[in-house]
Here is the input.
Amino acid sequence: MRAGATPMDSRARLWNDAPPMANGLALAPQKGLLAALKDALPAILLALAFRAACYAAMTALALWNELRPAPTLPDTLLAHLPYVGFVDRVNYLAWLFCYLPLAAIFLVTEPRRWVRYMITGGLVSLARGVCIALTGLGPPDPLHAGAGLSGKGFWPAYLDLLSPIGVFANGSARAYLTQDLFFSGHAATTFLLLLYLWRRPVLRWVALLGHLLMVASVLLAHLHYSVDIVGAWAFTFALFALREWSPRGAPGH
Here is the structure.
């Protein structure tokens, strides 16, 4: 440790080295936004392909999990929260509203870091798929859960779940997936976006608000156990730290 340094100077560099700021919104390198996006385009396309492949793998595991019987467990928090049908009906559209604009701003202003974010998001999806298959929890509120795979074959349901139109317009995820519980995808995706935007003063608070809305949404819709939220925080932060953590004083830092 250098002379005069404190132990705090050796903490993990999770939030440091923020890019230049303009009104709280970080800008891409000085060559310009479009030029930076063009330079990063191959990496962006590869990151999107990786993220899509991870989502497909996670969805397959979640759908396979629907074929198994699973118990409904007691939940202290959910027992005191009312089921709100409106929140349940708009849940996936609300996630899109909270997630997509921020992710798009992130892409345009920091394309290279956005690529790292998408890779981390893919890893979170894979971890979620494995956890769903390992836990096998039943729906926390069977009375308001979807029908699952009743009367629907695996492959037609799977293809419907891979389609954005099927998920956001037709409600396929709400209909077919009733046991994709530990851990929450709504909480994990918005929390990961918050972690990557934390060093950006304006976007940080918007992302935090969106994440809290999603946490409230899945609980009020009785889509998840409370432990699914805690699990999302734990797994997402662990993967974020593994990807982005580096001690001060390490080579290149």
Notes: Residues 1-13, 16-24 have pLDDT under 50 and may be disordered. Residues 50-243 form one domain. The two ends are 13 Å apart (CA to CA). The chain has one domain: 50-243.
